[in-house]
Amino acid sequence: MKPFMDKDFLLETETAKKLFHDYAEVTPILDYHCHINPREIYEDRKFENITQVWLGGDHYKWRQMRSNGIDEKYITGDSTDREKFQKYAETLEKAIGNPLYHWSHLELQRYFGFYKPLSGKTAGEAWDIANAALQRDDMTVRNLIRKSGVKLICTTDDPVDTLEWHEKIAADDSFEVPVLPAWRPDKAMNVEKPEYPEYIAKLAEVSSVEIGNFKSLIEALKVRMDYFAKRGCCVSDHALEYVMYAPATDEELDAIFAKGVANEPITREEELKFKFSFMISVAKQYNKLGWAMQLHYGCKRDNNQLIYKAMGPDTGVDCINNYAPSSELADFMNTLISTNELPKTIIYSLNPNDNQAIGTILGCFQGPETAGKIQQGSAWWFNDHKQGMMDQMISLANLGLLGNFIGMLTDSRSFLSYTRHEYFRRILCNLIGGWVENGEFPDDEEQLGNIIKDISYRNAVRYFGFDLDPEEKLNK
User: Fold this and answer.
1) According to the model, what pLDDT value does residue 476 have?
2) Burial 288-324 (b: 16+ CB within 10 A, else e)
């Protein structure tokens, strides 16, 4: 029997162990998509206790605690941080097979030196050890980033954001890790939402563009894209129900926009037409700017209205949506490539059944501008567990070029979540190591090492064009 989560955790072959320890483990992290707060980086926040850093905004953990019958008081309510930690520890005892079990223990091991299994019985000891560590000066937010070997971070930012904290970080010579904004214009696209008129007024104010129709909306967004680009942005991100294909005339778009800003009802057909034209318009501008476009789809959000009304979005009540027509995604991309305006694109679906469809679409639209110009993103959200990661990489390998994959992203609000990269890299090395030992790929250490370093870090550096050294080593 193998020891519990030891140094060779998830590594089943000697080749896998060598690839991880000699290559993946010593390669730094490029966090090109996350939801952490740049203000906390600038202010170099020090957390009072592990509940603040673990449970403060982690809807992954909230879902599991609710599944264990825990009262909301101990999840997001007014109980003490110690009580919340206890309830999570008791929940984790039952989380066999869930990635949270592994993520939580990797974080306890790497940041706090706690190697025992976390349970209701050990919660008190883990609480004391973690909280004592968090009081040290080397456990502030900036030092957690440094400890994790992170070389660059892209946050997630709305077009109306001032980017004040990004500017302050950039001007601070005491912190060497670039923290760049990433463009997330969902609120400008969601014409059917009741808050749309208020948002458009804000966008008009910050862009100094009078927004009266669809064309002026796009012009205002272009102004803000330039603002973001001057502050280092080169990545966009979109949360879509699915990638739609629904062409419309200029007159139709103006009429739909007018209804949106007047808070008049929008039909489903109007919503799709507006969002399709919106996405085409911004994608063309991304291409001009050299930005990468990330498309996240396949999620049905905010399903439990009791929780949503009480707490808002991103609180653990989302699910996989199984409607995402690949034909419309292909037509969307063909619309852009037909005028040579298709930007670098990364496609993520929350539905694992879409893996093969995405894998075949990639090959239709690749180009010489960048190796792997059209990417399938890493296993996302409900799929970033062992089986989900394996399925995504196997599908990508079967249908495309796994060696060009830009690898893992954190997609988290926690400064301890960088161990997810280690989890991913262990699974990657085990997968490739198994193929080698089964005689499916040559045992060429130089070639294999390059593949591991590329997927772990170097491909993303090249793909996004960040000013980083692809050969940089993590100082361990």
Assistant:
1) 41
2) ebebbbbbbbbbeebeeeebbeebeeebbbbebbeeb
Rg (CA), the chain: 23
Name the helix (H) or strand (E) containing 376.
strand 374-376
Q: Which two tokens stand for residue 199?
A: 């948002």
Task: Tell me what percent of the residues of the chain surpass a pLDDT of 70.
Answer: 99
pLDDT (average), residues 228-246 = 98
Distance (Å) of CA 258 to CA 9, 68, 373 = 57, 47, 36
Alpha-carbon distance 406 to 458, whole Å? 8
State yes or no: pLDDT of 473 exceeds 70.
no
Q: Is the pLDDT of residue 140 over 80?
A: yes
User: What is the rounded distance in angstroms from the CA atom of residue 364 to the CA atom of residue 399?
Assistant: 11
* Closest to 186 in 3D by CA, of 163, 158, 205: 158
Determine contact, residues 161/140, Cβ cutoff 8 Å: no
DSSP states of 13-78 as a string?
Answer: SHHHHHHIIIIITTS-EEE-S----HHHHHTT---SSHHHHHHSS-HHHHHHHHHTT--GGGTTSS
Dump pLDDT digits (tens) for 155-178. Answer: 999 999 999 999 999 999 999 999
The whole-number pLDDT of residue 475 equals 45
CB 295 within 8 Å of CB 184? no
Which tens digit of pLDDT belongs to each residue from 323-346? Answer: 999 999 999 999 999 999 999 999
Residue owning tokens 């050294």: 469
The length of the chain in residues reads 476
Instruction: Give the CA distances from residue 45 to residues 38, 117, 160, 291, 435, in Å, rounded to whole numbers and listed in that order.
Output: 10, 28, 25, 31, 44
Q: How far apart are CA 390 and CA 427, in angstroms?
A: 7
Tell me if 255 sits within 8 A of 202, measured CB to CB: no
**Model pTM score:** 0.96
Q: Is the dihedral of CA 332, 337, 341, 347 positive or negative?
A: positive
pLDDT value, residue 57: 86
* Of 94, 83, 92, residue with least CA distance to 114: 92
**Measured distance CA(428)–CA(423) in Å, rounded:** 9
* Euclidean distance between CA atoms 403 and 455, whole angstroms: 7
The kind and range of the H/E element at 425 are: helix 419-437
- Residue 444 burial class via C-beta count within 10 angstroms: exposed 0-12, middle 13-18, buried 19 and up: exposed
Instruction: Give the Cα separation of 475 and 241 in Å (integer).
Output: 41
Smallest CA-to-CA distance from 434 within 20, 12, 21 is with: 12
